[in-house]
Amino acid sequence: MAVNVGTDSYVTLAEAEDYFDGKLHTSEWDNAGDADKEKALRQATKEIDRQLLKGRKATDTQELAFPRHPDTEVPEVVKEACCEEALALLERGNSQRRKLQQEGVQSFALGNMSETYAAGTGKGLLSQEAKELLQPWLLGAVNIT
To answer: How far is the C-alpha of 71 from the C-alpha of 35, rounded, in Å?
Structure first.
């Protein structure tokens, strides 16, 4: 089932392919089938829409969180953030580490290896780049200059 821009994704599969054509380190995207790429774009859109955002939707009838008032179009950086989050979901969205973090585990040990996670880790967007691209719209975000 193809993605529907404005309904379940911020970008089409073709737009995402064009975006990744110009980037390095996209092997998970390149090796995924179209169905998985579309699933990743839909999931990335859902993850973006779950963020606490400043402002309000441009119209009361739009299904997705963007565009935000007073914009009438989805900003290009939001589309890029959707692509970046889709890539991160393909790379590590189903990892055991992420599952433990989402379940609230703060410390894990296996033999000589141990990890400690900060409270709240595993929630929100996987992609740091997506977070940075969305920073102007995220509540609690501060511009650092």
So the answer is: 31
The 10s digit of each residue's pLDDT in 93-127 is: 765 555 555 555 667 677 787 767 565 545 689 99
Tokens of 83: 């692509």
pLDDT at residue 93, as a whole number: 77
108: helix, strand or coil: strand
Question: In whole angstroms, what is the distance from residue 76 CA to residue 116 CA?
Answer: 36
CA distance to 42, 62, 73, per residue, from 6 (Å): 11, 7, 10
User: What whole-number distance in Å separates Cα of residue 141 and Cα of residue 115?
Assistant: 27
Picking from 16, 7, 133, the residue whose alpha carbon sits closest to that of residue 64 is: 7
pLDDT in tens, 41-94: 999 999 999 999 999 999 999 999 999 999 999 999 999 999 999 999 999 876
Residue 137 near residue 54, CB atoms below 8 Å: yes
CA 65/CA 63 separation, integer angstroms = 7
